[in-house]
Amino acid sequence: AELGNPVALSSWSGSDPCASWAGVTCSGGVATRLDLSYNTGVTASVSTLPVSLGLATTLTSVDLSGSSFSGTLPGAWSSLTALTFLSAQGNGLTGALPSGWSTLTAAKSLDLRSNTLTSTVPAAWSTLSAVSRLYLSDNSAMCGMLPSPLDGAGITARTNTGLGMACPSPPPLPPSPPSPSPPPPSPGNALSTLQSSVSPAAWSAAGLSGWASNTDPCSPVWTGVTCVGGVPTAVNLASYALDGPLPADWSHVATLVDIDLSGNSFSGGLPEAWSELGSLSYLQLSSNGLTGTLPAAYSALAVMQELYLQNNALYSTIPSGWGSAFGSLVRIVLSDNANMCGTIPAGISSRVIATGVSGLGSACPSPPPPPLP
Hints:
Elements: E1 24-27, E2 30-35, E3 61-63, E4 70-71, E5 85-87, E6 92-95, E7 109-111, E8 116-119, E9 133-135, E10 141-144, E11 156-157, E12 162-163, H1 187-191, H2 193-197, H3 200-206, E13 225-228, E14 231-236, E15 243-245, E16 258-260, E17 265-268, E18 282-284, E19 289-292, E20 306-308, E21 313-316, E22 331-333, E23 339-340, E24 352-353
Parallel strand pairs: 2-3, 3-5, 4-6, 5-7, 6-8, 7-9, 8-10, 9-11, 10-12, 14-16, 15-17, 16-18, 17-19, 18-20, 19-21, 20-22, 21-23, 22-24
Antiparallel strand pairs: 1-2, 13-14
């Protein structure tokens, strides 16, 4: 029934396989041999090997050669422990050899050549010490070392396989797709990151109202925030004695036009992420403790008009890209940043105020030579 009752097996009726079933040989009233070799009619309906054959535990010989079987070798055939001969050569079988067949310890000849089997001979087959011939030739995708005793001279036929050699390494897995970027924070959550930048003591002393995550900076309006049309457009927290680094997440508040944080004690560099504030026209950061270089990315601040960075500890040069970036620029004030140097880009030279910065306008000094060994 598992083979679909093809015409070629029309004699397989009733419950006694010894009653003239085609291909079945009996001894002592039990089936001992099954030969359906070179009979493609048996696979006319179903082409996979019958798993239920594993129930015929009296079989000593099974020959299914050249009958157009496909699919994999049934692991359930491990129950055929009386089997001495098995041939399924010349079919279209695929997949790996079942490791469970290690129970076929009576087997003397296993013929599985000329299929498309893959992988290795299972190490568990080392129990098959009675096997004198194992035919695996013409299974080109098989590979790996043979377990003892199947590696003995003349036992395993393996022409046109990779058996006896290490299997090739599998190709690397494709890279995982990138995780989707999280949504940008709300304006309130972005602005409120200022609190985590500032030291607890300075924040407490400043006494700023509002300024909490998951709240609206415009309702009620937070200290120092100006809103237009229900969105924050300006932050003025000049001279509140605030410290710590400038909050890079303010780059997500795209509606900001004015920022004034002058007269505090902010430190660290200018956040490069603020180059995303495309509406920013006024930035006042004078009289802090800012260090580092001027970000070249600020050339993206196309509507910038006034930029005040005086009385900090900035150094190095004015990025050359700033010379053609600020079409509406009124002034850039860099006074009292004593370690700035280099030429001022021609496009903005008339609008840069840099008193107390003797190095601007001339070449930066050469670095000191390395110490002698």
